[in-house]
Amino acid sequence: MLSRNSHRAFVFLVVSLALFLLTFADASSHRAERDAALESNARLVAQLGLTDLCLFTEARYTRHPSQADLHSAFQDHPTGLEHFPSGALLPPPRALAASYENLDRKTKSAD
Amino acid sequence: MKTWIEKQKALIDFTLSSLARRKVKNLGMLLVYTLIVFLLASVMLFTHALRREAAEVLKNSPEVIVQRMVAGRHDLIPPGYLEKLGRIRGVQKKEGRLWGYYYDGVVKANYTLMAPSAEAPAAQKVADGKIVIGAAMARARGLATGNLISFRSYSGRLFSFTVADVLPHAAELISADLILMSEADYRAFFDIPAGYYTDIALSVANPQEVRNIAAKLAEALPDSRPILRDEVLRTYESIFNWREGIVLVLLAGSIFAFAIFAWEKASGLSAEEKREIGILKAIGWETGDVIKMKFWEGALISLTAFLLGYVAAYVHVFRFSSMLFEPVLKGWAVLYPRFELTPVVDGFQVATLFFFTVFPYTVATIVPIWRAAITDPDAVMRG
Amino acid sequence: MIKLTNIRKAYNQGRDNEFWALNGIDLNIEPRRVTALCGPSGSGKSTLLTIVGCLARPTSGRVHLKERDLSGLPERFLTDVRRSTFGFIFQQFNLIKGLTARDNVMLPAYPLGGDWRALHARAEGLLDTLRLGHRLSSRVEWLSGGEQQRVAIARALINDPEVVIADEPTANLDTALSREFLTILENLKQQGKTILLTSHDPLVIESSVVDTVVTLRDGRLVEGK
Q1: Which residues pair with B150 in a beta bridge?
Q2: Cross-chain residue pair A96–B300, CB shorter than 8 Å
Q3: Inter-chain contact B381–C50, Cβ cutoff 8 Å?
Q4: Dihedral of CA C112/C115/C120/C123: which sign?
């Protein structure tokens, strides 16, 4: 069976394909295991009223991107360059900026 | 059919022994190719899973957060502000939240300090003088339940707390840097008088009403800034969109470098290869046979790279917690959550990745061969 | 076996450097005989060989293979005819470097999709009869000139052709190896192969193995033996 290059390639591809399909099986079984953790996390979020993922802790606008001041340094321009590495990964929340602009326009007093 | 299979097998035999002649070069290329697929697939799987995790977990966060703005900056909610909100219809529940940041000079880390609301379930209540801490914070300071820790507050006074509990490891993605304390301790530590709050969380009975309520809020309290949960979720959705982000930008350079290399390798026919094709034609191969043989070369290499790269990426992201991305995500932060992501594999994304990795390489292998393969079979004799 | 009628072949037709390599050749190649084409370089003998072997088409004239007119056949069918009827031995051997002797011999059979084990056995058998059994798995570039030519001969025979075509087969061989080649030729003839070769090596042309010598000059036949 393994005397021919094409047979070796075929066996190799079948094994790789099996591993590939195994990732899907693993994903669904792993997902079932993780369900309890997800649920307890969601409960904690509800109980404490948390608003953001704790991924970047170096500055307040990366720790809580949704709660950050719009006018803090480097955040007031959507394309403003960032000095924190994570800031480059995580742009200013555009949806929030947009809603804030809307509110801005609603003010009746002249600027 | 049997003849056809035998023929394809023979062509594969030939193409593999051809590749085996320059083993180091071809294996090296396969390795680089696999690595590219691995990185692309890792970014894809990681961001997709993170996005799903955020959506899944944050669906329970408050529907509306009201901040008060002073001179364009987030400021404390003064006493009486809460009452002013009360008259807006559709608001089911409103409560002031108390949270803030504390910089710990000892380990140079930022913590999020928070006082669970008075209405939080008993399980989350923290007694005076006690704290409940996030797992990453406990790790950074080497704390365990029962330990004593002191913080110097912004007023200069030293406060000591006993660790009552450490939040579970599974919750790190949302609570790694948290310090939960009682409301009294919080107000004393930050010198915030009674009646002041960081912001206000609103519960809205009817989700359809959220936008109207936000508009009413903005009208009634011009200095308020309502933040809607839907918008937060949408923001997270787009934040981790896998097309975005510096990882892909950085990766783009290497992808282009590889594309040039692969194109050069696959399409730049050397005089030697041209001669070989001439020989094959002269000994009875058709143009189509030569092209099929080259198709198998491209297909086998790219399929191998795709399958191995993808499987490695899956193991990396979901079994080794994306450890290669940690330095990028960690940035300057001292605290970094150790989290396992729930595997979500999106068939469409996998198909996209497959298409963009396997297809171009195979085409790049076949197209240039076309010209060489249609040379006259007697060219060998003439040369 | 093969009948050529008024074959003319032009290179670069219609351009300034137009060149008529063959100028009206009429030739009948007998089956089971060895026919040698000789003549100075540029006389058109290699061109004639490519036309007989269906590697190229004549500009005008007709080629008949056993009553079948090959002149009008489309490319696909011509390739089919070529690989089932002819085996080629080239002057430079034209082996594929880096592959083993056995792989080189098996090459012409790959597109046919026959049984691999049988093919494998046939290739080894051919190399064995050509006294290359010990060199089966050696890369061809490690073989000597004589061994390389025998690999090329085995490759020409793998599809069991009726006609073997050899272009200057002894050009790169010394006298001893050339004699050995003639012995192989003798055997092939006895097996019933029709052989057509070009040469200007007296050793070949004057050999008893060769039945017919056709001399060409400036794209025309000069005389016969």
Answers
A1: B160
A2: no
A3: yes
A4: negative
Query: Does any domain span residue C104?
Result: no
Q: Residue C47 sits in a domain of what CATH number?
A: 3.40.50.300
From chain B, pick out residues whose CB is under 8 angstroms from the CB of C82: 284, 377
For A18-44, the DSSP string reads HHHHHHHHHHHHHHHHHHHHHHHHHHH
Tokens at residue B313, please? 């990426």
Name the domain boundary from B217, B239, B261: B239
Cβ-Cβ contacts under 8 Å between A and B: the total is: 238
Residue A102's pLDDT band, with cuts at 50, 70 and 90, is very low
**Contact (CB<8Å) B10/C159:** no
**Domain match, B331 and B366 both:** yes
Among A13, A28, A43, A66, most B C-beta atoms within 10 A, so best to mutate, is: A66
Helix (H, G, I), strand (E, B) or coil at B23: helix
B44 and B71 share one domain: no
| pLDDT tens-place values along chain B, 383 residues long | 888 999 999 999 999 999 998 889 889 989 988 998 998 888 888 888 888 888 888 888 888 888 888 887 788 999 888 887 777 777 888 888 999 998 888 888 889 999 988 777 766 788 888 999 999 999 988 989 999 999 998 888 999 999 999 998 888 888 888 999 999 999 999 999 988 999 988 888 888 888 888 888 888 888 888 888 887 777 777 666 644 555 666 677 777 777 777 777 666 677 788 888 888 988 888 888 999 998 999 899 999 999 999 999 999 998 888 888 777 777 667 788 888 888 888 888 889 888 888 888 888 888 778 777 777 777 766 65
Instruction: Give the range of the structural domain holding residue B6, as residue numbers without chain letter.
Output: 2-57+242-382
What is the DSSP annotation of B326-380?
A: HHHHHTT-S-----PPPP---HHHHHHHHHHHHHHHHHHHHHHHHHHHTS-TTHH
C22 inside domain: yes
* Together in a domain, B268 and B376: yes
Question: Contact C170/C145 with Cβ under 8 angstroms?
Answer: no
In a shared domain, residues B233 and B247: no
Work out the minimum CA distance from B269 to partner chain C, whole angstroms: 16
Count of CA atoms in the C-beta half-sphere (13 A) of C57: 13
**CA atoms of B241 and B47, how far apart (whole Å):** 7
Residue C81 touches partner B, C-beta closer than 8 Å: no
Name the minimum distance, in Å, from the CA of C153 to any CA of chain B. 12
d(CA B198, CA B78): 9
For residue B18, the chain A residue with the least C-alpha distance is A5
Q: Work out the angle between the directed axes of helices A94-106 and B210-220 (0-180°, nearest 10).
A: 50
CA dihedral C152, C154, C158, C163 (to 10 degrees): 80
**299-328 of B, contacting A, C-beta below 8 A:** 300, 303-304, 307-308, 310-311, 314, 318, 328
Which range marks the domain in which residue C45 is found?
A: 2-96+156-224
Residues of B whose CB is below 8 A from A101: none
Q: Which one of B311, B336, B340, B353 makes the best mutation probe of the A interface by having the most chain A beta carbons within 10 Å?
A: B311
